[in-house]
Design a protein that fits this description.
The chain has 216 residues and is an alpha+beta fold. The chain is built from five helices and eleven strands, in the order H-E-E-E-H-E-E-E-H-H-E-E-E-H-E-E.
Length: 216
């Protein structure tokens, strides 16, 4: 498993309903949640088949997080994983720290930004359950002209769960997260996101078919 995939596994583990350790893979399983990172196999070398068998036995989508290419599989999401240093993003977007009492609004922004508005309620319930036992976290929301345009979850020094409906909100949220973590924060974003990351590497989430092959 690459370091980047290991970072994502560590971040999403407390947000998952279940983490299972197999001989050559870790599996995160969170039914009734749209979080890709919390519903995937994170394999070591040769561990994909074992992890997929576990997911398929539960009727879950065969999703794998990998820095390598997987033939005959659909790339659902590609991420650049790295370290963001505060860049003092200009603009009118304001960021506020919010409490768990605003999780409904937080989840609504995330779901809307992912074009999955129908998942907002389920996402809110899943996050509420996970955050009950999580201590070192911060919820951030971004606003422009009084309208919520972004949300981000900081866990310790990592901020991989976020969503924005206005591209200007992402650097503003990351700046606020970096302020909380000494000036820099570990994060991930798709290739088209206009933010600079240090030491970045790539991880993709792949939806596998029965004949998919793992390529190192």
């Amino acid at each position: 498993m690459s370091d980047a995939a290991a970072h994502l596994l560590a971040y999403y583990s407390p947000l998952a309903g279940e983490r299972v350790e197999l001989s050559a893979a870790s599996v995160l399983y969170t039914p009734r949640s749209p979080l890709l990172g919390a519903n995937a196999v994170y394999p070591a070398a040769g561990g994909i088949s074992e992890g997929l068998a576990w997911l398929r036995a539960r009727g879950a989508p065969p999703l794998v997080a990998s820095s390598g290419r997987i033939e005959d599989a659909q790339e659902i999401l590609r991420l650049r994983v790295g370290r963001y240093t505060r860049q003092a993003a200009p603009g009118t977007v304001m960021v506020e720290q919010v409490s768990r009492l605003q999780l409904v609004a937080f989840a609504e922004v995330l779901a809307r930004s992912w074009d999955l508005p129908q998942w907002a309620s389920a996402l809110g319930r899943s996050l509420a359950h996970s955050l009950e036992s999580l201590r070192d976290f911060t919820l951030l929301m971004a606003y422009d002209a009084g309208q919520a345009v972004g949300a981000l979850l900081v866990v310790k020094r990592d901020a991989h769960l976020w969503g924005v409906t206005d591209s200007r909100a992402l650097p503003a949220l990351l700046d606020a997260a970096a302020d909380l973590t000494g000036g820099a924060v570990n994060t991930s974003c798709p290739p088209e996101a206009a933010v600079q990351l240090d030491g970045e590497s790539s991880v993709s989430y792949w939806l596998l078919h029965d004949n998919a092959l793992f390529m190192r």
